[in-house]
Design a protein that fits this description.
By secondary structure, this protein is of the alpha/beta class. It is 38% helix and 14% strand. It has 14 helices and nine strands. The strands form two sheets. The chain has a seven-stranded mixed β-sheet, sandwiched between helices. It has a two-stranded antiparallel ribbon with strand order 1-8. Helix 3 packs across helix 4 and helix 6 runs antiparallel to helix 12. Bound molecules: S-adenosylmethionine.
Length: 353
């Protein structure tokens, strides 16, 4: 995969260049923590993404980059044995850690108890994807990469109000997430995220900083939910629309919307009943990433009238021409432009959900 060229400094160099903007943990605090290395006390479960981040300099850098203040309530998803947790506890007021594996929960509790920091920590044992999170001002986590997309959707569309989410993610996913319109990497995931947030690439982290060493490298990303000026769209409609637009992201919109199969699919959708979708319900149905064709559920309609279908096709062509987007490519245009096109389609009775 081609990675866009950016001024990205590897974690190891960055650590020596940057002054921490929070007070660093004192040596004595670190001396009293358990070692960050993995002692193999139980077998790790790879399908659950159990790769322990063991490089103390990278762990310190993540906390520094998260810009925590002493008033922060941190949400950590997947604390594992607590290498990141103990540092978060040193910098924030409170940490809520959500962990699915009972063995990790026990190890974490014991470690934090030995440090005398239990009063600052709430551990919730459970699946982060199946619970309502308590209040948090910021999320900092080295998450299991298998839940990256649904977890980010849950954070951003689940009616939580938080300042930032600083997440360690699989490198390729991080680069796709933070791509901008015009980048070769720009894609549906990035467009959907940019609707409600800004995502910034912070630093790369080598796979060698984990135990056991995973197959992939990682990158740290900071996501900032937009506080104002969110483009007003029906989210479900937007998701259906970006799925269509990015189904062939390097073709022109004119070519995408001319495909017979696409016209027929949209015709069926536009004939079927629609439901508006509020943010709260949205997190359960959201799929930010997939941009394949034909993955959406089939809409039931008994018969397609060829005359009606022909008029519908004409309408699509007219809308694209009116808005002037026939020759534009979805990977190169902003969300403002996309939403303008979506509005024009909806006004003419063309719907995407
Ligand atoms: C990549 S490890 C990170 C461990 C630790 N944060 C570190 O940096 O060393 C991911 C952790 O998430 C946990 N986990 C996996 N799926 C989870 C889920 N659905 N909900 C909560 N925790 C989960 C795993 O058990 C594991 O401890």
């Amino acid at each position: 995969m081609k990675i866009p060229v950016r001024l990205l400094i590897p974690a190891s160099k960055l650590l020596s260049l940057h002054k921490p903007h929070i007070k660093p943990l004192s040596q004595s605090f670190l001396l009293h923590t358990s070692p960050d290395s993995w002692d193999r006390r139980f077998p790790l479960h790879r399908p659950r993404g159990q790769h322990i981040l063991t490089n103390p300099r990278v762990l310190d850098a993540i906390v520094r980059k998260a810009g925590l203040g002493s008033d922060d309530s941190v949400l950590e998803v997947g604390p594992g044995t607590g290498n990141l947790t103990v540092r978060l506890l040193g910098a924030a007021r409170h940490v809520t850690a959500v962990e699915i594996d009972e063995r990790m929960v026990e190890a974490l509790k014991e470690r934090v108890e030995n440090l005398g920091l239990s009063h600052k920590l709430t551990v919730i044992r459970g699946d982060a994807m199946k619970m309502q999170f308590p209040y948090f001002s910021t999320c900092v986590a080295n998450i299991p990469y298998g839940i990256s997309s649904p977890l980010i959707a849950k954070l951003l569309f689940g009616q939580y109000h938080f300042r930032t989410a600083t997440l360690l993610l699989q490198k390729e996913f991080a680069y796709r997430l933070t791509a901008l319109p015009g980048d070769s990497e720009y894609n549906r995931l990035a467009a959907n995220i940019r609707l409600v947030a800004e995502a910034e690439l912070i630093m790369d982290v080598s796979k060698r900083d984990f135990a056991p060493v995973p197959k992939v490298d990682s990158s740290l990303v900071t996501i900032r939910p937009r506080s104002g000026s969110i483009i007003p769209v029906d989210l479900k409609e937007w998701l259906g629309f970006t799925r269509v637009c990015f189904s062939k992201k390097n073709k022109t919109l004119g070519a995408i919307f001319k495909q017979k199969r696409m016209v027929l699919e949209l015709f069926k959708r536009s004939k079927s009943e629609k439901k508006n979708c509020m943010n709260g319900e949205f997190e359960n149905i959201v799929d930010l990433e997939s941009d394949g064709e034909g993955e959406s559920e089939e809409k039931e309609i008994k018969q397609v009238n060829p005359h009606e279908l022909g008029l519908f096709k004409e309408t699509i062509g007219k809308v694209l021409e009116k808005v002037g987007f026939n020759e534009k490519r979805p990977s190169k245009i902003t969300n403002e432009d996309l939403s303008c096109l979506l509005r024009a389609f909806n006004q003419e009775g063309v719907f995407f959900q």
